[in-house]
Amino acid sequence: MQTRLFRIIQQLFSSTGRKLQRFQKNFAEIFVALFSGFLLGNTFGMFLTPIREVIPWDGATILLALIICEVLGKFVYQRTFNKVGFWFQFLKFLNSAKIGVLFGFFIDAFKVGS
User: Which of 5, 12, 31, 55 keeps 20 to 30 A from 23, CA to CA?
Assistant: First the structure.
């Protein structure tokens, strides 16, 4: 005889197992994307001088970077998007790199502020 609590616990363990398998499968590529994005975010100050020749206002550069981040997040997190295939995996990779870039900006802001 199965109680409702037993079924809930059983579903919890089975879903946790699936999530763990998915994490183990994708860990390396997500880690590489995060680290690459972090390095790009930390070295963004080096690329700022050549960008200033094209876009003279720094606010426009930051606004463009934020718009790209938000549009990428919209495509990754919308519910109606096809969650399988090469393009979705590529978008997830770009999203992980985006998170790394934003983390690099955050760390770099602390370095500038101190």
Answer: 5
Q: Dig out the tokens for 99 from the structure.
A: 């998170």
Q: What is the pLDDT of residues 92-105, one digit of tens each?
A: 888 899 989 889 88
Burial of residue 51 (number of CB atoms within 10 Å: 0-12, 13-18, 19+): middle
CA angle, 53 as apex, 50 and 54 as ends, to 5°? Answer: 100
Residue 1: predicted pLDDT:
61
DSSP state of 55: S
Q: How far is CA 31 from CA 96, 100, 109, in A?
A: 8, 9, 22
| Tally: H helices and E strands in the chain | 4, 0
Alpha-carbon distance of 66 to 56, in angstroms, equals 17
Spatial distance between the Cα atoms of 104 and 19, rounded to a whole number of angstroms: 27
Nearest to 108 by CA among 40, 55, 59: 40
Quickly tell me which residue has 């790009």 as its tokens: 40
